[in-house]
Amino acid sequence: MPEVFAARRARLRERCHAVGSAAALVTRPANVRYLAGAAPPGAALLLAPRDGAEDVLLCPHPLEEQQPAGAREGGRPDDLLRIRPLGGSLSPEGGDAAVAAAGLAAEEGADSLAVEEHHLTVARHRAIGSVASRLRLTDLGTAVEQMRVVKDEEEIACLRAGAEIADQALGELLESILVGRTERHLALELERRLVDHGADGPAFPTSVATGPHSGRPGHRPTDRRVEEGDFLSVCMGAAYRGYRCEIGRTFVIGTTPADWQIELYDVVFAAQRAGREALLPGTEHRQVDRAARQVLASAGYGSALPARTGHGVGLEIAEDPQLAPAAMGKLDACVPVTVEPGVHLPGRGGVRIDDTLVVRPEADGGPELLTITTKELLAL
């Protein structure tokens, strides 16, 4: 995909030139990977100050010392890039790639350099200014993050593959004996299954929550053991070729669900469905949140609602857009997002249902569901 990465860099270069910046320095790892195809630890990407000049990926160490060529998890740098390990006349061995890149930009005649101020520390920003005092430093802002919001079909294919892996790992776990096993053990088993089925690894730390812990967002697995009659909620995801998806499901263990469990599950399911159905191009981000939130609030769970209904996914597990009450902007086609409403009742437990979907127009069938594990309330 060299032409894809080159096209992305060309778009960013045009944007920089439009605001009067000759060159750009990208340091945030996910942004480096998006533009370069790989983001070795500590790497920085320098977009050349003029058309026709080579863009440069600066790395603290030679690539072969960091990972095998073509390793899937870390990606492989675009062949059109010049790779420059630090050392020799450029920078002391083990130096800061961003500082070295600024020096290189000055050597190549740039008069200004756009940097990702939201990613740089104050000390690093000062070091860049000191090594290239002639350069006028400007803020690149979140230009690359904004480019990353809408995915191409190759990116969506990676998300789809990751979702299939997550569905498979979760489905296999549900066929095993769960009673008596700890949250921590189940989470570790899920992460092992993800890798066994071809994932780079988990997209984020897997959450398994039982009984009074269930439905709690961001729950860290404990040594609590699964008991008969528990709600069991799982939130997990697979990383595949760098792209990260998310799935969350809630089940009942061992017995017929209690009336309060059925009632709560039905409400959360209805809220999640309302959020999914709102995922159409042109819909305001906050309208998606409102669609799900109103269902839960009207059922009396307004005080137990999370801060947001969902978020974008991609090279990071939590990207723009944010589907939240105060979120600004509208959805575009080919934007992958989660819809993940939930309710946690302290001391009792709760329900969370979470899917990854891609925004599609109605003419193309509407939102594309990537995570397809059943949302029926199963008694396991």
Total beta strand runs:
19
Order of neighbouring strands in the sheet with most strands: 4-3-2-1-5-6
State the separation between the terminal residues, measured CA to CA: 44 Å
Largest sheet: 6 strands, mixed
Determine the strand fraction and express it as a percent band: 15-25%
- Residue share in helix: 25-40%
Q: Cα-atom Rg, whole angstroms? A: 23 Å
Provide the succession of SSEs.
HEHEEEHEHEHHHEEEEEEHHEEEEEEE
Average of per-residue pLDDT values: 92
Poorly predicted tracts of residues: 88-94
**What would the principal axes of the Cα set say about the shape?**
elongated
Structure description:
Helices cover 32% and strands 19% of the residues. The strands form six sheets. It has a six-stranded mixed sheet, with helices on both faces. Strands 7-10-11 form a three-stranded antiparallel sheet. A three-stranded antiparallel sheet has the order 8-9-12, covered by helices on one side. By secondary structure, the protein is of the alpha+beta class. The protein is built from nine helices and 19 strands. Mean pLDDT is 92; it is low at 88-94.
